[in-house]
Amino acid sequence: MPMYQVKPVCGSHMETELPTCMYRLPNVHAQQGGSSTSEHALQNGEVDPAVKALEARQDEIMRKLYELKAAVEGLAKTVTTPDADLDLTVSSSLSSQSPTSTTFKGVTDLDTLMGKDLGALRDIVINANPAHPPLTLLVLHSVLCQRYRVLSTVHVHSSAASVPPQLLSCLGPRHADSYARQMFQLGFTLIWKDVPKLQMKFSVQNMCPVEGEANVARFLFKLLSPYPSDPAVATLVDSWVDMAFFQLAEGSAKERAAVLRALNSALGRSPWLAGPEFSLADIACYCCVLQSGPASSTPTNVQRWIKSCENLGHFSPAKLFLK
Amino acid sequence: MTKEEAQGSTEEEQQAQSKKGLKKQQKEAEKAAKKAEKQAKLAAEQQSTEEDDFAKDRYGVLAMVQSQQKLDRVLVRVQDFTPEKADQLIWLRARVHTSRAKGKQCFLVLRQQQFNVQALVAVGDRASKQMVKFAANITKESIVDVEAFVRKVEQKIESCSQQDVELHIERIFVVSQAEARLPLQLEDAVRPDGEGEEEGRATVNQDTKLDNRVIDLRTTTSQAIFRLQSGVCMLFRDTLTKKGFVEIQTPKIISAASEGGANVFTVSYFKTSAYLAQSPQLYKQMCICADFDKVFCVGPVFRAEDSNTHRHLTEFVGLDIEMAFSYHYHEVIDSITDTMVQIFKGLRDNFQTEIQMVNKQFPSEPFKFLEPTLRLEYTEGLAMLHEAGVEMGDEEDLSTPNEKLLGRLVKEKYDTDFYVLDKYPLAVRPFYTMPDPNNPKYSNSYDMFMRGEEILSGAQRVHDAQLLTDRAIHHQIDLEKIKAYIDSFRYGAPPHGGGGIGLERVCMLYLGLHNIRQTSMFPRDPKRLTP
């Protein structure tokens, strides 16, 4: 017979689970993706999907931020500039290029424009007089550089007397790969020479030389985007280009004043000279206005238009040059 | 015949005879008359010579200058005769270019190199008739000492270089007399070819000129050409020295033919034979391996090529450059082209008179160039030739007509007479040319052209002994013969490149001449060994 009866402390019958294996290792061969169990195998440096997702989210946020930033910038510009590519700037995705490169719409193909690629650099040779540097062409050159891989070189011809150093560096610094001419799509060779009129030579067999800054500008512009298909607009652009070169640049003070008045009235009607889109006419007129010197009597529309042009950023080489 | 007829005929004969006789008599009479006239003239002349010659001591033939005495006389150069010297009494020594008598006066043209001046002897109280006669009879090309007054003239003397003055001769002495019959006349030698044909005047054949080089070199054209050539050499040395180059002299008698066995002259060398160097290539490279960094050398080059062309000589002056570079062989091209541009600029700015003088006889377009020099790639050149309709393979070398055509195309497009063609195909270059790193078909080699003709062939050299051996084996060259050459790269060699130009060819092409013998003083070609 027991002395004391104590109530049992713990339950009478407890089933303990005895483990059958000593260590449990994670399964090396498991190929299940997407499950987020902590025992899921991580193979070959694969990043934990959670981290990956986090990174992806972060990238997405940054991208959206950049887009917003670009949109705000574009909007800021449109406040002062009747920007032709307002739509594009706001909705452009992930484009790290400056908005200016998308200014010129239209598909252009070097082969159709310049003839079959014969396996060698397509070199455009421009002979210019150092006394009359062609600003329009410098502007077009910088736009071309954004579009294509351009090899730019500047030479001084033996007929030209000494040339100021800024003319020697007007096409920008020498490209790092300039020792391999074959790597470039287009060559832009500017030769400072004692010529009466600016001249361009491209394909000696098939083309006669193109004379006059206006005509060369037209040729180079066609490499960027085709002329407006509407003949009326195309003619308008042409007439502005001619007016810029003949009357603004070379005309008497009276003619220049007349052109400025015409510019003023045209710009009152539309944001750009040839309608709602930026075109060669604006480039040509801007450069000629700039070259003829700052006038205190520039009409208000023209001044506004000048600021819009500068906002676009194409014209920095021209401005730098004139300084 | 009847008697009467016979009689008639004899009478006729007699009449004919008498006619003939009359004629004969007349002729004899004329002859006699002429003789008498001549004799009378001679007598008269003798009389005049026997007249008192008061100017006897103011003219004559000097005794041969054997340094009998040291005179302190100052001789004035012809180019210094300007109106500033008017009315001065001066001495000069010059050649008699022409002399012609006109009544009581004799006009002489006295010449010194490219300058000439008119001189005048007139019968008066200072000069006698005999003196004028003596002056008129001095043979052309004789060297004379003249004392004269410089006088201004009203009308410019177009035919002389000194147009504003003329000399009035006080004394005239012959220092060295020239033979009366000259093998060629200087005016003919200077006459442009076209003019000669048009006006029916004589021009001188090139062979005659070369055979009598001593006289031909006296012409204004030749003087101008060789002064310009001297200028090229001087500018070459000066430009390179300024860039830090060192001038070296390399041996010309060598033991092994450097460029290939065919075109080399053999000389007997004591018990064996040796060769005359085709180029200083090997020694330039050895100098680079000897740490001279940048070298150039000016010296003769001997090529035994049996080419009788307008641009080949068997011996010519080679101006060679070699330099070590840091990373890219374009550093070498830039250096060489800059040197060439400095030479062209120097000639354009300082030798304009010489260039104009040569252009008078050999008209040509002035030489144009770009700075920095235009550099096109071989593929671009091929593309331009294809566009012009020439069929050529990718790895073919340019033939001479193709080179000329390419030169014209480049001139049309870029308006330059001087350009570089880079990246030649490896197959057409010598074994020591460095292959292109990315494309084994091409090489790091280049040629430079003036007026469409090649003046320089250069490249980055192989500076690794193993690669050099491989390339030599590939070109089937006997390794024993070039062992010394390969050995020079075994003890550390920097990457280097260079090129060489021919002085005569550069001058010929700069001036737009058509035959290299015109720019070589005493040319050597397969058919000519003298003078």
UniProtKB/TrEMBL annotation, chain A:
Keywords, ordered alphabetically: Apoptosis, Cytoplasm, Developmental protein, Differentiation, Nucleus, Phosphoprotein, Protein biosynthesis, Ubl conjugation
One Pfam assignment: Thioredoxin_16
Domain AIMP2 lysyl-tRNA synthetase binding: 1-47
Keyword Cytoplasm in annotation: yes
Highest taxon of source: Eukaryota
CDD domains, A to Z: GST_C_AIMP2 (cd03200)
Limits of the Glutathione S-transferase C-terminal domain: 250-309
Subcellular location: Cytoplasm, Cytosol; Nucleus
Biological process according to GO: apoptotic process; cell differentiation; translation
Keyword Ubl conjugation: yes
Record Gene3D superfamilies: 1.20.1050.130
A GO CC term attached to the entry: nucleus
Subunit text: Part of the multisynthetase complex (MSC), a multisubunit complex that groups tRNA ligases for Arg (RARS1), Asp (DARS1), Gln (QARS1), Ile (IARS1), Leu (LARS1), Lys (KARS1), Met (MARS1) the bifunctional ligase for Glu and Pro (EPRS1) and the auxiliary subunits AIMP1/p43, AIMP2/p38 and EEF1E1/p18. Interacts (via N-terminus) with KARS1. Interacts with EPRS1. Forms a linear complex that contains MARS1, EEF1E1, EPRS1 and AIMP2 that is at the core of the multisubunit complex. Binds FUBP1 (via C-terminus).
Protein function: Required for assembly and stability of the aminoacyl-tRNA synthase complex. Mediates ubiquitination and degradation of FUBP1, a transcriptional activator of MYC, leading to MYC down-regulation which is required for aveolar type II cell differentiation. Blocks MDM2-mediated ubiquitination and degradation of p53/TP53. Functions as a proapoptotic factor.
Official protein name in the record: Aminoacyl tRNA synthase complex-interacting multifunctional protein 2
UniProtKB/TrEMBL annotation, chain B:
Family annotation (HAMAP family): Asp_tRNA_synth_type2 (MF_02075)
UniProt KW Lipid metabolism keyword: no
Subunit field text: Homodimer. Part of a multisubunit complex that groups tRNA ligases for Arg (RARS1), Asp (DARS1), Gln (QARS1), Ile (IARS1), Leu (LARS1), Lys (KARS1), Met (MARS1) the bifunctional ligase for Glu and Pro (EPRS1) and the auxiliary subunits AIMP1/p43, AIMP2/p38 and EEF1E1/p18.
Residue stretches of biased makeup (Basic and acidic residues): 25-40
CDD domains according to UniProt: AspRS_cyto_N, AsxRS_core
Single GO MF annotation: RNA binding
Organism: Cyclopterus lumpus
Entry superkingdom: Eukaryota
Enzyme class at the top of the EC tree: ligase
Keyword Acetylation listed: yes
Domain Aminoacyl-transfer RNA synthetases class-II family profile: 226-531
Family: Belongs to the class-II aminoacyl-tRNA synthetase family. Type 2 subfamily.
One cellular component term from this protein's GO annotations in UniProt: cytosol
Enzyme Commission code: 6.1.1.12
Name the record gives this protein: Aspartate--tRNA ligase, cytoplasmic
SUPFAM superfamilies from the UniProt entry: Class II aaRS and biotin synthetases (SSF55681), Nucleic acid-binding proteins (SSF50249)
Reactions mediated catalytically: tRNA(Asp) + L-aspartate + ATP = L-aspartyl-tRNA(Asp) + AMP + diphosphate
Region (Disordered): 1-49
Principal cellular location given in the protein's record: cytoplasm
Record's subcellular location: Cytoplasm
Span of the signal peptide: none
Keyword list, A-Z: Acetylation, Aminoacyl-tRNA synthetase, ATP-binding, Cytoplasm, Ligase, Nucleotide-binding, Phosphoprotein, Protein biosynthesis
